[in-house]
Amino acid sequence: MNEQMLSVWRALMDAGTQCLSHEEYKAAEGYFAQSVGTARQMEVPEILAFTLRLLATTQVKLGKLEIAETGFHEALAICETIANAKGMAEAWAGMASIFLGRGLFQEAASAYERSIEVYPVTSPPLRLGMLYSDLGQAYASLEEWEKALRAYDQARQLCHIHGYLKGKGELEVLIGEIFYRQGKKKEAETWLKKACQDFALLQDLPTLANALQYLALIHYDQDELELAREAERRAVVLWIKFGMKSEASESCYFLSKIEQNLGDKEAQQYLELSIALYIREDLGLAMRYQSLAGLALTALDLPKADEYFTEALRLFELVQEDEKAGEVCETLAFLADVDGRRKEALAYYFQAVEYLKGYPIQVLDALQSLAACHEKYRDHRRALETYWKALRVAREHGLESEGIELAIQHISKLWRKKAK
After folding, report:
1. Cβ(198)–Cβ(208) below 8 Å
2. Under DSSP, is residue 163 helix (H, G, I), strand (E, B) or coil?
3. Are residues 335 and 305 in contact, defined by beta-carbon separation less than 8 angstroms?
4. What is the Cβ-side half-sphere exposure of residue 245, based on CA atoms within 13 angstroms?
5. Does the pLDDT at position 75 exceed 90?
6. Could you write out the DSSP letters of every residue in 195-230?
7. Which residue among 105, 160, 240, 398 is least packed, with the fewest CB closer than 10 Å?
8. Separation CA 370–CA 348 (nearest Å)
């Protein structure tokens, strides 16, 4: 073997592997492509097959599935020729990743089965565990639950036997998810608790927080609100401890919903904390302000409700969520009307109608609210005009219109009486 050429190949592979570990896939592809050229000149089948697999793996990450498939096929053919069972197993696993990328889950499962079938007993058992885990995910995508559970359990046993506690816990989460997706919530709860115990033993606190959040959701779905609150509170503490603001914000948001269901006043505090921890101005932040405004409205703190709804409206407008913006405008109009701010109330109702014009049912409600506001302030002409607009919308979209027709008759009488 040409030692100088081997040295060049190693340098290229090291550089490519480094880029791959940092998810710099384009750069990795360049290094591995050069490595393949060098490997072909060296004429060592094992080296060429290994290099082809790494290049193809990188190309899968880049979405270049056709060219990657060619590489895996060539690697597989080489390994079959030289009876390299480990190489064959990895090539089949690579083919499975191609099928996954195309959404062909049955073909992916079959490829993983072939990979496991040829995997040599002398090769690293934890890699075999990963193959079983990947097989389980393929079957889970097909909703073939029993096959998915068997594959996950095989992977879990390998992790247990070989002392890989984190992998064991992660697989217990996946098994719990399978039961949850089948509606078997108690079984899901059992497996999530096992995972939490494993992550606690490892002191892997971020992963423990994630499992606790999943466990809280399962308790919540079973109306076990006290248990859900306990699990979610623990998750919040862990996220905050590790400075993971985004995750902590999500947990606080969910915790505020749990507290609301329990009738606890801490719901507002957790919602405020969720907002304080939120790091973007997007739909998620807008929804949080809308929820906070709803709590203020329930508590009859109308100035705060107005303040929070106004901020929610700004954010819904920012992310162009017209339907949500229209809904908030209606509420702000109601608050302004209650407070005697007639011009603001009418302005918000007009805004609501404009935002909701693409949503027939919602715009119909907004038009009727606007008409009622005109009627309240004895502007019968505008009230009648608005009810007629509402009637046209109702008839165009086959919606209930009897109430609108009665309102038109009523306002018409008032207007005629006023004219006399």
Report:
1. no
2. coil
3. yes
4. 7
5. yes
6. HHHHHHHHT-HHHHHHHHHHHHHHHHHTT-HHHHHH
7. 398
8. 9
50 contact partners, CB below 8 Å, separation of at least 6: 75, 87
Q: Which residues contact 218 (CB under 8 A, 6 or more apart)?
A: 176, 180, 185, 188, 189, 192
Give the pair of three-digit tokens for residue 121. Answer: 């007993």
Q: What DSSP designation does 299 have? A: T
pLDDT at 104 over 80: yes
SS3 at position 10: helix
Separation between Cα atoms, residue 269 and residue 259, nearest integer Å: 10
Residues 393 and 367: beta-carbon distance below 8 Å:
yes
Helix axes 185-202, 165-181, angle to 10 degrees: 160
Sequence-distant (6+) residues with CB within 8 A of 62 are 25, 26, 29
Find out whether 87 and 79 touch, Cβ atoms under 8 Å. yes
CA 133 distance to own-chain centroid: 21
Helix (H, G, I), strand (E, B) or coil at 48: helix
Note the pLDDT tens digit of each residue in 329-377. 999 999 999 888 999 999 999 999 999 988 999 988 889 888 888 888 8
Write phi, then psi, for 387 (nearest 5 degrees).
-65, -35
Tokens (6 digits) for 151: 């594959």
Show Cβ contacts of residue 25 under 8 Å, excluding neighbours closer than 6 positions.
Answer: 19, 58, 61, 62
Q: Tell me if residue 144 falls in helix, strand or coil.
A: coil
Q: CA dist 408 to 254, 310, 344, 346, 352, Å? A: 45, 32, 25, 19, 21
User: What's the rounded Cα separation, in Å, for the pair 182 and 50?
Assistant: 40
Q: Does 303 score more than 90 pLDDT?
A: yes
Residue whose token pair is 């809904």: 327
Rounded Cα gap, residues 368 and 361, in angstroms = 11
- Residue 54: name the closest of 37, 40, 75 by CA: 75
Query: Which tokens in the block code for residue 177?
Result: 């998810």
CA dist 250 → 183, 240, 260, 282, 329 (Å) = 24, 11, 16, 14, 26
Is it the case that residue 417 has pLDDT exceeding 80?
no
Rounded to whole angstroms, the Cα distance separating 264 from 194 reads 30
